[in-house]
Amino acid sequence: MGVLFKEIGELYAGFLPGCKQAPRRSASLQFRDFIRWQEAAAREVTEMAAQEAYWAGEVRGRSPKPLTSPADRPSPCAKKPTRAIARRCASTPI
Description:
Blueprint: H1 2-15, H2 31-59
């Protein structure tokens, strides 16, 4: 926004009477330049569509096997830890 306000201020100052600063000139780009740019972009889209169709035909039916990672299958049942309880009676009080 700062650039916009700066340029508007410069333009306004250029039209004030007695101002030595000349107003800005019109942009060097014209409508015909915009049309050329749009036509070039349309040609690129057409070329990209043709390339996409070519490569889609090349890889059709050649899909690799899916990767199997641990997240793709359920984990085995977790083993419960086995515990043993040893009971001994001390002959003397502790």
